[in-house]
């Protein structure tokens, strides 16, 4: 039936916000490891599929190996493409064609 659906989602950022952020300054490594192990949605979903008999660990290993090969080939192809000019670095990043004064500096 076409009924409204509410999905409540809780996320936890495992990594740092950026390269300039060291999140270990305000949360412990054990806290992050706990969320990574117990609350990882991908791991939980895989466990659900395995418990229902929809997915097998052997199939998972085989699929990961196959997909890794595809990804590595794509990386190799991308690395052979010419790099865009530096003038394209901020294009479409901050909304609009005009580069802000502080980026021009």
Structure description:
The structure is a single chain. With 105 residues, the protein is mainly α. Helices cover 48% and strands 0% of the residues. The chain has four helices and no strands. The protein has helices at 29-38, 41-52, 57-80, 101-104. The protein starts with 28 loop residues before the first helix and ends with a helix.
- In whole angstroms, the N-to-C terminal distance is 57 Å
Estimated share of beta-strand residues:
under 5%
Oligomer: single chain
C-alpha geometry = extended
Rounded radius of gyration (Å): 21 Å
Helix share, percent: 40-55%
Order of helices and strands: HHHH
Q: Describe the biggest sheet?
A: none
Which structural category do the helix and sheet elements fall into?
mainly alpha
Low-pLDDT runs: none
Arithmetic mean pLDDT: 86
Number of helices in the DSSP assignment: 4
Number of strands: 0
Brief characterization of the structure:
With 105 residues, the protein is mainly alpha-helical. The chain has helices at 29-38, 41-52, 57-80, 101-104.
Topology:
Elements: H1 29-38, H2 41-52, H3 57-80, H4 101-104
């Amino acid at each position: 039936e076409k009924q409204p659906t509410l999905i409540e989602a809780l996320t936890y950022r495992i990594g740092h916000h950026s390269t300039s952020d060291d999140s270990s300054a305000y949360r412990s490594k054990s806290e992050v490891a706990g969320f990574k192990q117990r609350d990882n949605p991908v791991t939980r979903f895989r466990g659900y599929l395995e418990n229902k008999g929809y997915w097998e660990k052997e199939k998972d290993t085989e699929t990961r190996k196959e997909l890794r090969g595809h990804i590595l080939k794509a990386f190799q192809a991308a690395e052979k493409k010419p790099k865009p000019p530096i003038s394209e670095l901020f294009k479409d990043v901050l909304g609009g064609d005009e580069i802000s004064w502080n980026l021009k500096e």
